[in-house]
Model the fold of this input.
Amino acid sequence: MDPTIKHQWTEALRSGQYPQGKEWLRNADGAYCCLGVLCELHRQTQDLTGLQWNLGRNDYAYYRNDCAYYYGDHGVFLPKAVLAWAGLEHKEEEVLEDLMCQNDDGVLFPTIADYIEEHL
Done:
Protein backbone atom coordinates (compact mmCIF):
# COMPACT_ATOMS: atom_id res chain seq x y z
CA MET A 1 0.00 0.00 0.00
CA ASP A 2 1.17 3.50 -0.76
CA PRO A 3 2.63 4.79 2.55
CA THR A 4 1.26 8.33 2.13
CA ILE A 5 -2.28 7.12 1.51
CA LYS A 6 -1.97 4.60 4.34
CA HIS A 7 -1.03 7.45 6.70
CA GLN A 8 -3.92 9.63 5.46
CA TRP A 9 -6.34 6.72 5.91
CA THR A 10 -5.27 5.86 9.44
CA GLU A 11 -5.32 9.53 10.44
CA ALA A 12 -8.82 9.92 8.98
CA LEU A 13 -10.03 6.86 10.91
CA ARG A 14 -8.63 8.32 14.15
CA SER A 15 -9.89 11.86 13.48
CA GLY A 16 -13.46 11.37 14.68
CA GLN A 17 -14.58 13.17 11.51
CA TYR A 18 -16.27 10.09 10.01
CA PRO A 19 -19.21 8.43 11.78
CA GLN A 20 -18.81 4.66 11.74
CA GLY A 21 -21.42 2.51 10.04
CA LYS A 22 -21.74 -1.12 9.04
CA GLU A 23 -22.39 -3.27 5.96
CA TRP A 24 -22.03 -0.50 3.34
CA LEU A 25 -19.13 1.67 2.22
CA ARG A 26 -21.40 4.55 3.26
CA ASN A 27 -24.92 4.08 4.53
CA ALA A 28 -27.89 6.30 3.78
CA ASP A 29 -27.32 8.22 7.03
CA GLY A 30 -23.77 9.13 5.92
CA ALA A 31 -21.91 6.74 8.24
CA TYR A 32 -18.90 4.97 6.76
CA CYS A 33 -17.33 1.54 6.84
CA CYS A 34 -13.54 1.78 7.25
CA LEU A 35 -13.25 1.04 3.50
CA GLY A 36 -15.75 3.79 2.78
CA VAL A 37 -13.42 6.26 4.51
CA LEU A 38 -10.73 5.24 2.00
CA CYS A 39 -13.22 5.85 -0.83
CA GLU A 40 -13.98 9.28 0.57
CA LEU A 41 -10.26 10.13 0.68
CA HIS A 42 -10.05 9.01 -2.95
CA ARG A 43 -13.00 11.22 -3.88
CA GLN A 44 -11.42 14.23 -2.18
CA THR A 45 -8.20 13.87 -4.17
CA GLN A 46 -9.71 13.18 -7.60
CA ASP A 47 -11.09 15.71 -10.06
CA LEU A 48 -14.81 16.03 -10.57
CA THR A 49 -14.80 13.58 -13.47
CA GLY A 50 -13.86 10.77 -11.07
CA LEU A 51 -16.05 8.50 -8.99
CA GLN A 52 -18.79 10.04 -6.86
CA TRP A 53 -21.17 8.91 -4.13
CA ASN A 54 -24.64 8.03 -5.42
CA LEU A 55 -27.60 7.04 -3.28
CA GLY A 56 -29.06 3.75 -4.49
CA ARG A 57 -30.29 0.25 -3.78
CA ASN A 58 -29.38 -3.24 -4.88
CA ASP A 59 -31.30 -6.50 -4.45
CA TYR A 60 -29.93 -6.98 -0.93
CA ALA A 61 -30.92 -3.44 0.01
CA TYR A 62 -34.46 -3.94 -1.32
CA TYR A 63 -34.76 -7.13 0.70
CA ARG A 64 -33.80 -5.23 3.84
CA ASN A 65 -35.81 -2.12 2.87
CA ASP A 66 -32.54 -0.24 2.98
CA CYS A 67 -30.46 1.96 0.72
CA ALA A 68 -26.89 3.17 0.78
CA TYR A 69 -24.45 5.38 -1.02
CA TYR A 70 -22.49 3.67 -3.77
CA TYR A 71 -19.05 4.84 -4.73
CA GLY A 72 -19.31 4.55 -8.46
CA ASP A 73 -21.23 1.29 -8.69
CA HIS A 74 -19.78 -0.30 -5.53
CA GLY A 75 -21.71 -0.45 -2.28
CA VAL A 76 -19.61 -2.92 -0.28
CA PHE A 77 -16.26 -3.59 -1.96
CA LEU A 78 -13.56 -1.16 -3.05
CA PRO A 79 -13.70 -0.13 -6.71
CA LYS A 80 -10.64 -1.02 -8.81
CA ALA A 81 -9.83 2.67 -9.18
CA VAL A 82 -9.50 3.03 -5.39
CA LEU A 83 -7.41 -0.14 -5.11
CA ALA A 84 -5.03 1.15 -7.80
CA TRP A 85 -4.86 4.68 -6.32
CA ALA A 86 -4.08 3.32 -2.85
CA GLY A 87 -1.49 0.89 -4.21
CA LEU A 88 -3.34 -2.09 -2.78
CA GLU A 89 -2.32 -5.37 -4.34
CA HIS A 90 -4.13 -8.66 -4.86
CA LYS A 91 -2.18 -10.26 -1.99
CA GLU A 92 -3.69 -7.68 0.39
CA GLU A 93 -7.30 -8.69 -0.30
CA GLU A 94 -7.34 -10.93 2.77
CA VAL A 95 -6.45 -7.97 4.97
CA LEU A 96 -9.24 -5.93 3.35
CA GLU A 97 -11.72 -8.72 4.10
CA ASP A 98 -10.49 -8.76 7.71
CA LEU A 99 -11.06 -5.01 7.89
CA MET A 100 -14.63 -5.39 6.59
CA CYS A 101 -15.36 -8.08 9.17
CA GLN A 102 -13.81 -6.12 12.03
CA ASN A 103 -15.79 -3.04 11.07
CA ASP A 104 -19.08 -4.94 10.85
CA ASP A 105 -18.33 -6.68 14.16
CA GLY A 106 -18.14 -3.27 15.86
CA VAL A 107 -14.37 -2.81 16.16
CA LEU A 108 -13.85 0.95 16.43
CA PHE A 109 -12.00 2.98 13.80
CA PRO A 110 -8.91 3.74 15.97
CA THR A 111 -8.35 0.01 16.54
CA ILE A 112 -8.88 -0.65 12.82
CA ALA A 113 -6.27 2.05 12.08
CA ASP A 114 -3.80 0.16 14.29
CA TYR A 115 -4.54 -3.03 12.34
CA ILE A 116 -3.96 -1.23 9.02
CA GLU A 117 -0.62 0.08 10.23
CA GLU A 118 0.45 -3.40 11.25
CA HIS A 119 -0.83 -5.42 8.29
CA LEU A 120 -0.73 -3.19 5.20
The radius of gyration is 13 Å. The mean pLDDT is 89.
